[in-house]
Design a protein that fits this description.
Blueprint (H helix, E strand, L loop, with lengths): L17 E2 L6 H5 L3 E4 L5 E6 L13 H20 L1 E12 L8 E12 L2 E10 L2 E15 L2
Antiparallel strand pairs: 1-2, 2-3, 3-5, 4-7, 5-6, 6-7
Length: 145
């Protein structure tokens, strides 16, 4: 039995967020990840920086932030078009660092589409501090149920 399954070791998450509960794939490896869907259709994805997310300096690893940006920005395609998607291009700028214990949030908004290629503008932040900004191009695939 592992201690990480005990309720006393559960990560405290802010109100309105729910665990994404991925059962397989890459998202499960980088998690846990959380999301919050607002009544107006906007959304936020989030994670709590833990030891397994950090680099040798104790900051959240850039690769983790890139992977998170991918799922945070790309979700705009799901929300706006109700389609599956794959990433074609992801361009980001690292603005600040996140440390262990920081609650990191991100979102994106679709800004254009042409021939099933959706452009998304996104932002990742912690509190009032921007961690990363970027844009992505995502190929829209089949309809999502």
């Amino acid at each position: 039995m592992t201690d990480d399954l005990l309720e006393e070791n559960a990560v405290p998450i802010p109100e309105g967020y729910q665990s994404m509960n991925w059962t397989r794939g890459f998202g499960r490896q980088i998690g846990p990840l959380y999301e919050r869907i607002e009544e107006d259709g906007s959304y936020r994805r989030a994670f709590l920086v833990q030891d397994h997310h950090t680099n040798g300096m104790g900051n959240c690893h850039g690769g983790m932030l890139m992977a998170f940006a991918d799922v945070a920005f790309g979700h705009a395609v799901t929300m706006a078009y109700h389609r599956y998607w794959v990433t074609v291009r992801l361009l980001t700028d690292f603005i600040s660092a996140a440390k262990v214990g920081d609650w990191v949030e991100g979102t994106g908004i679709a800004t254009g589409d042409e021939d099933d290629f959706i452009t998304v503008k996104g932002r990742i932040w912690c509190g009032d501090r921007t961690i990363m900004t970027g844009t992505g191009v995502f190929k829209a695939l089949g309809e999502r149920p």
